Amino acid sequence: MPVTIPRDLPARVTLEAENVFLMTEDRAFTQDIRPLKIAVVNLMPTKVATETQLLRLLGNTPLQVQITFLAMASHESRNTSSEHLDAFYATFEQVRDERFDGLVITGAPIELLPFEQVNYWDELCQIMDWSLDNVFSTLYICWGAQAGLYRHHGIEKIVLPDKMFGVFDHRILRPHARVLSGFDEVFPAPHSRHTGTRAQDIHAAEGIEVLAESDEAGVYLAASEDGRQIFVTGHPEYEWDTLLAEYQRDVSRGLDVPVPRNYFPGDDPTQKPRVTWRSHAFLLYANWLNHCVYQRTPYDLGALSTSEHHPGDDWVI
Question: Where on this chain does substrate bind (predicted)?
Fold first, then answer.
């Protein structure tokens, strides 16, 4: 089933060329089916690229998904035109009175800043707090995951001695977690960050579990006991050349940046990178949409505000 997007969204051309199942809004409105309402808080500077990456994953399920992109009103984007934002993005104030089946909060290249020094931190906190009663399940990515863990569970991020940069193997700790259905016992995923979250800090918090981790990269996936908060510390949405572009950008700036590990054949940056994580990225998003959202969200989203926040009978962590 398709993901529903505006007809003129730039990502449409790329995704249609890849045979991703899309549906324009005018066609979707003629169907007597309630699509899943998914909001995406896109904090990445390369918003168009991130739109394409996320829609590619969200559009690979048997579910119709209606996307609402959100931008921070308290932050002026330097890398995305105001015309694009005006055409395809809403602000939090514009959707505050709505309810959504799911919410995605992306990463942002600001992890070395204390949370309170991020110029849109107060607005993001409003969104995260609002999600507790207005969104059934929220997927937090990379810096977004660190922000969510800090806001909801008081878990501090830590600065790493070296950038966590590359593709790393992860092992499953909770094999019966529905969000990991169909995963191999060991699976790869990309990381690109200067900060991290200690597993022991998550273990010490109430109501949250570590589901997958890496000996090299640490915690990769954690979830609340009721499945309404999913935290992913890496970037499964990355394309084959995203780490390459980041590496080349930093090298061109004269930075002492490490070669992304386990990404180029033989860790040789003159070689074309290998894509080893794509199937698990599709599976993660499909599982989130199916098990955390579609199977459990009320048909009447108005019931979200009165629903009890406890583990459902059909949720397994």
Answer: 163, 192, 249
Q: Total structural domains in the chain? A: 1
* Residue 264 falls inside a structural domain: no
Residue 46's domain spans which residues? 3-240+275-306
- Distance, CA of 22 to CA of 12 (rounded, Å): 8
Q: Is 235 labeled as catalytic in the residue annotation? A: yes
| Joined tokens for residue 205 | 């918090």
Q: Which of 288, 295, 224, 316 is nearest to 57 (CA)?
A: 288
* Residue 113 Rama label (left phi>0; alpha psi -120 to 50; beta): beta
Catalytic residue among 235, 280, 291, 292: 235
Q: Among residues 51, 142, 153, 291, which one is catalytic?
A: 142
CATH number of the domain residue 300 falls in: 3.40.50.880
